[in-house]
């Protein structure tokens, strides 16, 4: 992995709880709240100053801008939800560009696993643990925050162990 283990270690304890919260809120209400996305940007803004070289830190804001523009376009086309696009943009500075291919594979695997787990939970006794979650009753819609948040947390966790 191209992310440094030290940067991943700095980010992980702050980012993982936000990722779990995003998974929870998206399953509960089919929404990724703005305050969680802002918290992710604030974590990068503060921790990134410590975790990354300053020139790298500044360039990572370009990742945020590019992913936000792509996300807005995809949202306008109906391909992704607005919260999903905002979360992806907020997460982009935390990801080393050299790990993009690995991240896509990780996201694909996590998306498949999250989808299957959500659908199984929807039709089993697990549903009784949270009977009022909107994600159980949305038909074909899926709480993408479950896969997005999980992917970012897993990426940083892997970065701690396998980062350079």
From TrEMBL:
GO terms for molecular function: aspartic-type endopeptidase activity. Signal peptide: none annotated. It comes from the Bacteria. Keywords: Hydrolase, Membrane, Transmembrane, Transmembrane helix. Its EC number is 3.4.23.43. The keyword Zinc does not apply. Residues 15-117 form the Prepilin type IV endopeptidase peptidase domain. It is an enzyme of class 3 (hydrolase). The chain crosses the membrane at residues 6-24, 36-54, 60-82, 102-120, 140-162. This is Prepilin peptidase. It comes from Thalassococcus arenae. The lineage of its organism: Bacteria, Pseudomonadati, Pseudomonadota, Alphaproteobacteria, Rhodobacterales.
């Amino acid at each position: 992995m191209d992310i440094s283990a030290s940067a991943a270690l700095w980010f992980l304890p702050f980012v993982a709880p936000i990722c779990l919260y995003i998974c929870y809120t998206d399953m509960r209400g089919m929404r990724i709240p703005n305050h969680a996305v802002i918290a992710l940007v604030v974590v990068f803004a503060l921790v990134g100053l410590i975790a990354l070289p300053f020139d790298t830190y500044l360039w990572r804001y370009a990742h945020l801008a590019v992913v936000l523009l792509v996300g807005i376009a995809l949202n306008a086309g109906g391909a992704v939800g607005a919260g999903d696009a905002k979360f992806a943009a907020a997460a982009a500075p935390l990801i080393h560009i050299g790990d993009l291919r690995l991240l896509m594979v990780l996201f694909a695997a996590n998306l498949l696993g999250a989808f299957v787990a959500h659908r199984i939970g929807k039709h089993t006794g697990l549903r009784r643990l949270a009977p009022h979650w909107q994600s159980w009753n949305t038909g074909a819609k899926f709480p993408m925050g479950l896969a997005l948040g999980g992917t970012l947390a897993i990426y940083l966790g892997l970065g701690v162990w396998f980062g350079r």
